[in-house]
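Appendix B. Raw example, untouched.
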Amino acid sequence: MDAVEIRTATAEDLESVVASSAALFAEDSGTRDPLRNAEWPAAHGAKWVADLLEDPDAVVFVASDPAVVGHLVGTFSAPSDMWTVARAELVSMYVRETRRTQGIGTRLVDAFTEWAKGRGAGRLHVTAYATNNSALHLYHSCGFTPNSIILNKDL
């Protein structure tokens, strides 16, 4: 199997990141949250990714072999009156199913962790569906621990 490179996305990766995001929506929220619009990436993904690529407080990483086989989107928030330390959020991550269990997800999280540390973040956070055991396992193995629980009641 080809070596996978983890790198910061460029404008040339926009279409591939949108496709990766669409695959995440279809697999994750599409099967776990009926209120999530699985068509959102097709309608809004290109603008969202383009804006992220220009945002100094965001990062988009891709895993490529040389085709994009996964992505990670992260954001940075400076300390504020409410938060005493800078924080970084892992907003979105996906690795193509055929490339899972090869350490690519861990390498994406490691790249994000280094980016966040370099910005001065004192905490990283990520949200995952409670039924997404593989994501939870990955995040736990990367050092994330539960801090809060979101409870929903659909009306």
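End of appendix B.
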